[in-house]
Design a protein that fits this description.
Elements (H helix, E strand, L loop, with lengths): L10 H12 L17 H4 L6 H19 L4
């Protein structure tokens, strides 16, 4: 028996591996040690589209302006 490390790129690949596991072709071992401390900014960089980012930025600006206005 050999042990190799595989980087899972998407959920389809993970499902495929679990199917192979159910056919007793391989055994899936979750390796907790390979998860390194990664900055959230690096982890989620590029997850939002540019349009959604601009929309969220406008909403934040609007909320901040509402918060700072005089209410009396």
């Amino acid at each position: 028996m050999r042990t190799i490390t595989v980087e899972i790129k998407n959920d389809i690949a993970l499902t495929f591996l679990h199917n192979l596991k159910s056919m007793h072709v391989l055994r899936v071992i979750d390796d907790k040690t390979t998860t390194s401390k990664q900055k959230l900014s690096e982890r989620f960089a590029g997850c939002l589209s540019k349009e959604r980012t601009e929309e969220m930025q406008k909403e934040l600006t609007q909320m901040r302006n509402e918060w700072e206005r005089d209410t009396y």
